[in-house]
Amino acid sequence: MQVGCRVIHITPGNQTISNQVTKLSQNVKKKSAISGWRKDLKEVSKQDDTDIPRGKGNSSLRPTQKPGTGASRQDVILGTIMGITLPLSLLAMWYITIPLLGYCTVSLLGAETVETLFYVKEDMMSYLTSECPLWIAAKERAYLENRSDQEIRRVTNITQREFIEIVKQGEPIVISDALRDWESFGLFNCEYFMDKYPEAEYFDWQGQKQLTLGNITHREGFKGMDCASGYMDMNWESNDKYVKEWLSKMKLPYFYPEDTIMESAFNYQGNKSPPMTGFLGVPGTGVSPHIDETCENFMTVQLSGVKHWSLSWPVREGDKLQWSKPLVVTLYPGEALMWYVSMRHHTEVIQDCSLSFSFTLKHPPPKDYYERLIQDFKRVEKTERDNLYIDTGVADIDFIDTCNLFETQGNVYIT
Question: Which residue among 226, 259, 319, 321 is buried most deeply as judged by most CB within 10 Å?
Answer without folding.
Answer: 321
